[in-house]
Please model this.
Amino acid sequence: MLRNRSVVSIADIGNDELSEIFRIADDMEKSLKSGKSLALMNGKIMATFFYEPSTRTRLSFESAMHRLGGSVISVAEAKSSSFAKGETLADTVRMAEGYSDIIVIRHSMEGAARLASRFTNKPIINAGDGSGQHPTQTVLDLYTIKKELGDINGKTVTIVGDLRYGRTVHSLLLALARFDTKVNLVSPPMLKIPDYVMSMLPRDFRVDVVDDLQSVIEDTDVLYVTRIQKERFSDPNEYQSVIGSYSISNETVGSMKQKSIIMHPLPRVDEILPEVDLSPKAAYFRQANNGVPVRMAMISLILG
Ligand code: CP
Model:
């Protein structure tokens, strides 16, 4: 199983392991609700290196470790670490290996977590590598779909937004392809899913690239909305040309099936109007809260 293993891409977690994580996350949730304190990670230390901004991922990882009775040491921004003096990632993880039992990294460079995992025997968790992947987000996304709709199989998932730079989309799409799902991809042409991600999908996976959200909204079980990743654009004019390309409103929600949900990895900017928050279909804050029990489950399985 996951014991002592790094998680740098969603391919590092098999479907059996996903089921195990979901089962333990359910238990963790029950224990959180009961207010019972856990001592499963007593004496264990997590090191978190966030070289890109984060609210949910860093805080939910750290909360998860504290809730398990473990401790956390943290670099919350690149400029407050020796990264700013030119230290390489390889040297950083070699050093962190002696300070901690598990290392969580967010970095602007695609492949950073994979690279880090080659320089340490301690498990490395990818908390987002540039426009690459965000595997633990994907695990909590799948957990949310299962919890909200009862099953992942049989669902139509429509993914809207920045499919080019959105790392959560890349790992989610690869994971959905392992289930009996259908996926619709909706984005401005400039932000379409990269060919390298499409080439990783099985040939028989049902995935449609569609221009118009309205044409698929009535058949959608999960509407997965993403932010345009402003920080990834090298040309500000390109960003200006796509801002406001899509906006989810109560009118959109009105076209959706009765039993359907809206998800978003967050943060959002303007792609879901605040009026939607009042709809029972708005699952994005529940989704963010699932980050703690899911990450508790993953830490417990990795550290044994
Ligand atoms: N979903 C997510 O990665 O959020 P943060 O950037 O706030 O961690």
